[in-house]
Amino acid sequence: MITPSKLVNEILSLARVDGEFLLLAKRLQMLHELNRDAFHKMVKKAKLGSRKAYYLVEMAKQLRGISLPRKRLEAIGWTKAHIIAKRINASNALSLLERAEKKISAHDLAIWIKSRKPSGGSRCVLLYFNQKQYQTFEKVMEKHSAPRGSRGWGGKEEVLAELMRADLKNSQY
């Protein structure tokens, strides 16, 4: 039986190596099940970040019993592996891996997996608002019935795109 202290040492070593996220995920899951206090301390010590650590633990659980080539999974990266692990089973494992291996963003992969049409060519825009600007943003989202979720505003892209189209239509650009 492997002890929590041995797991911590192995995890600390694995966290410093690129391309070993599958083994890291398995070891994190083991430590999480054995000793949650040691898990939380190790996450801080390894500077993994809680979200990434929990994503890796979740991924290890979801990939348990699924037979896929390790090198191919490592090649797609932990973000895409986490995305496909959410929906993976024995019958779709290979097709999900093949889709993830294509030149596709993690965002578009997640959309494709949810059986929606991928946005293709989408771009990310990061906005920083001061408090007054954000209050205005919130009012606009509410006015246009954008649903507010635990992780922000749903449909904000559609609302902003419609407002921009209307602005261009009414302007002399």
Our Rg estimate from Cα atoms comes to 21 Å
Structural class: mainly alpha
Q: What is the count of β-strands?
A: 2
Percentage of β-strand residues: under 5%
Describe the overall structure.
With 173 residues, the protein is mainly alpha-helical. It has 2 domains: 4-113; 131-169, no CATH class. Helix content is 64%, strand content 2%. It has 9 helices and 2 strands; from the N terminus they run ααααααααββα. It has helices at residues 4-15, 21-34, 36-46, 50-63, 70-85, 93-101, 106-113, 131-143, 156-169; strands at 148-149, 152-153. A two-stranded antiparallel sheet has the order 1-2. Strand 1 (148-149) and strand 2 (152-153) form a beta hairpin. Helix 2 (21-34) runs antiparallel to helix 3 and helix 5 (70-85) crosses helix 6 (93-101). The protein is globular, with a radius of gyration of 21 Å. It starts with a helix and ends with a helix.
List keywords for this structure.
173 residues; mainly alpha; 2 domains; two-stranded antiparallel ribbon; 64% helix
Quick gist of this model?
The chain is mainly alpha-helical and 173 residues long.
Helix-strand blueprint:
Layout: H1 4-15, H2 21-34, H3 36-46, H4 50-63, H5 70-85, H6 93-101, H7 106-113, H8 131-143, E1 148-149, E2 152-153, H9 156-169
Antiparallel strand pairs: 1-2
